[in-house]
Design goal:
The complex is a heterodimer of chains A (about 375) and B (about 270). Chain A has about 375 residues and is mainly alpha-helical. Chain A has 16 helices and no strands. In chain B, a hairpin with a 2-residue loop joins strand 4 and strand 5. The chains are: A mainly alpha (about 375), B alpha/beta (about 270). At the A-B interface, helix 11 and helix 12 of A face helix 2, strand 6, helix 3, helix 4 and helix 5 of B.
């Protein structure tokens, strides 16, 4: 059949412009970008030691050769450059990776309740990281300069094994049942959690801060060397996940349907799991487990933008960054001089959303 | 130039679920596959579509083994409507139809893709639902959206070769008038040079719209031919366990089947 077989549309049909099409849904980039800029500047400025924004802009312009009369004092500059900035950069990257990994895993399992934390990916990564740290003494003498890669590498392997295990237990060919996949995640997380508990007891204090770090997560460990070590895997994961946005839409139709539309489904699934494991592994190895970012961010964005991953993935990266940086500001400033674990804050936000999605039966088949 | 199954067998464990079946789907025809429950109709369609590997034999599309086609090239020629599709995410109806265009729109959808998607919705009588979320539709509406998606996928003929449309029970959730709508569209598709293979339960629909009917029983092809050749009371009694009478109508190419009761010897 061809287009000419079709009767011309009667005048009562909405004109093309009025039909809600992928391009016709709201464009989120300006709002999300502005939100990210605002929280980033806030995070650079506030804290136990204030860095005034006027001075920050003045110094930045001065570096470009423009005199404004405002500048940071040396102490302010030191706090900004060696403490605040690496922390914000790390927050931006980790937030983006957690949120996009969540969205990708949800498409892979065809279920909006899936998330790296709930699936066991994060616990697996933490177990891998802890194991590498505990064994560090034995490994460090032989590896030389590659030592920096041991912890993220082990976290990646842990994340990968946990995700594959959860997929094996909870998945099947078609749409995955919510109860089954959540139970698989519970089992994998519990196993990994027990391993972390045992290993942290064996470790010395110098090797591990506390078990809390691995269960709740924090950006407090950020430094430039941490940022440098984790940038490459985080960015690779992010690029891989964003590149597959189109195919993720087809995956939502079903694996058979995606295959019939020309997607190499097995390769796509392998690529997604590898990318998510790489990103979550790198994130967890430097920040510990920060839960529910991957559930909360795509869930909110789907309400506003619809399920098209060509917008959802990029928007998730932006909102994930903004959310994690904002949560970190709160973690640093809410209970001074104590610092709250940021993972506990994101979970406090995420759990009600998760419960309401469960209660409304979303993702139940 | 055809979609051809050559001596295809599908084994599950030690049992043979299908075959051996040799079947040639040629351009311009609507081929109905009928048979009792569990006869292997869906297995045949899955093997024909390439998604189920053949244990023995092979499926050729336009002379080339189906799995040797690059995925996108295959998707430009072969469209499949599965028996049921679950889509739990809130795409609009138009967005679902546009997903069918993805083999064409490797760099984002253009106006040709939008036109094809909207025309496919028009043909399936669901264009008024364009902006409704898929998840809010009834079963019959969803089935027509999925069919519109597959029609949008095959909307225009590829530069070389033919289009093959495989439908697994495309009328199962539809009201009477839309059952006929779907099969009329299948006929249009065949008239424009495409081929349709449709698994159907209603023998009268098959008799009315199909050029050829394939009867499957216990995984084997027991009869293949025109409706008038195939739909004989004794064959229907032995394969379906149903006693029927045939009524001829003057302007109808095929007889009309009227069931009169279950065949006595059938379990």
């Amino acid at each position: 059949m061809s287009a000419s077989d079709v009767a011309p549309a009667p005048a009562t049909y909405p004109a093309r412009e009025q039909v809600r099409v992928p391009g016709g849904r709201p464009r989120p980039w300006f709002v999300l970008g502005a939100a990210l800029v605002v929280v980033t500047l806030t995070s650079l400025s506030v804290g136990s030691y204030r860095v005034p924004l006027l001075g920050l802009f003045g110094s930045a312009l001065e570096a470009l050769g423009l005199e404004t009369g405002y500048r940071l004092e040396p102490m302010q500059q030191a706090v900004l450059l060696s403490i605040r900035l690496p922390r914000v950069v790390l927050g931006v990257m980790v937030g983006a990776v957690l949120a996009t990994s969540g969205a990708a895993l949800q498409a892979l399992f065809r279920n909006p309740l899936v998330e790296p934390g709930l699936l066991g990916t994060s616990s697996g990564a933490a177990l891998g990281a802890v194991a590498a740290i505990v064994m560090d003494v034995a490994l460090s003498s032989r590896l030389g300069p590659f030592r920096l890669l041991v912890v993220p590498g082990a976290a990646f392997l842990g994340a990968l094994s946990a995700t594959l295990l959860a997929q094996r237990l909870g998945g099947g060919g078609g749409r995955t049942e919510t109860a089954r996949i959540l139970l698989a995640g519970v089992a994998v997380s519990a196993g990994a959690g027990a391993g972390i508990g045992l290993l942290t007891q064996m470790a010395t204090d110098a090797q591990l801060r506390t078990i809390t770090f691995w269960t709740w997560g924090s950006l407090a460990g950020a430094s430039w060397s941490v940022v440098v070590a984790s940038t490459v895997p985080l960015l690779i994961a992010l690029v891989l996940l964003l590149r597959d946005s189109r195919s993720l839409n087809l995956l939502l139709l079903g694996e058979r349907e995606a295959w019939h539309l020309g997607v190499d489904v097995e390769k796509l699934k392998r690529r997604l799991i590898l990318a998510a494991a790489l990103g979550v592994g790198a994130a967890v190895s430097v920040t510990g487990i920060i839960g529910f970012v991957g559930l909360l961010v795509p869930a909110l964005l789907r309400l506003a933008l619809g399920p098209d991953h060509r917008r959802l993935m990029g928007a998730s990266a932006l909102l994930g960054s903004a959310l994690l940086v904002a949560a970190d500001v709160l973690a640093r400033t809410a209970a001074v001089p104590q610092e709250l674990p940021v993972g506990a804050l994101t979970s406090m936000l995420g759990v009600p959303v998760f419960i309401s999605m469960l209660a409304r039966g979303k993702g139940m088949s | 130039m055809s979609l051809e199954a050559r001596g295809v067998e599908v084994w599950r464990g030690r049992g043979r679920a299908l075959g051996p079946v040799s079947l040639n789907l040629v351009p311009g025809e609507v081929l109905a596959v009928v048979g009792p429950n569990g006869a292997g109709k869906s297995t045949l369609l899955s093997a024909f579509s390439g998604e189920l590997p053949c244990t023995v034999g092979e499926v050729l599309m336009d002379g080339r083994p189906l799995l040797k086609w690059p995925p996108r090239e295959r998707a430009l020629r072969l469209g499949v409507l599965p028996q049921e599709s679950s889509l739990g995410f809130g795409f609009t109806v138009l967005e679902v139809a546009l997903l069918g265009r993805s083999p064409h729109a490797t760099r984002g959808e253009g106006s040709a893709d939008m036109d094809a998607a909207q025309a496919a919705l028009e043909v399936m009588d669901i264009r008024h639902l364009s902006s409704r979320p898929y998840t809010s539709l009834s079963g019959g509406e969803r089935q027509r959206v999925q069919l519109a998606r597959v029609l949008a996928q095959l909307w225009e003929a590829p530069e070389h070769g033919h289009r093959y449309l495989l439908l697994d029970e495309p009328t199962s959730s539809l009201d009477l008038s839309h059952q006929h709508l779907v099969l009329e569209e299948a006929t249009h598709f065949a008239r424009d040079g495409g081929s349709v293979l449709a698994v159907l339960h209603d023998l009268n629909l098959a008799a009315r719209y199909a050029h050829r009917i394939a009867v499957l029983a216990d995984g084997k092809l027991v009869e293949l031919g025109s409706p008038a050749q195939v739909l004989r009371p004794e064959l229907i009694a032995s394969t379906f366990g149903l006693q029927v009478r045939l009524v001829e109508y003057p302007d109808s190419p095929a007889p009309f089947i009227i069931p009169s009761g279950r065949a006595p010897h059938h379990p």
